[in-house]
Amino acid sequence: MSTDQPAPDDQRDALRVHARPLGAGRHLVTVEGALDLHTASQLADILQPLLLTSGQSVLVDLSGVAFLDSTGLTCLIAAYRTARSTGARLALIAPGERVRRMLALTGTDRVLHSYATVDSVPD
User: Mean pLDDT throughout 83-93?
Assistant: First the structure.
């Protein structure tokens, strides 16, 4: 039996999302994999509750996101809208070239601010 077979679609398209506190009122959400139609709800399920409290800062590390489609983009925009309505703060950390291109193409980069590192996000 060969081990060179491609991974099943559900493994190839998997999204890993991990949230951890960085201190009082500040969380880092690390995202890895494809952020698309099949996986965006996983990110939304983590982000939305974190953004419901005024004064929260939620930093979303996108350095591990290899693919972002319109559904993934919509998830980020919905998170931004929640943050804006509750007084929370949302910032993107280290989006890769493909993700930056999608953000710029859609104009989303004008409202979703990106930073190179967690430490470069102003308090």
Answer: 97
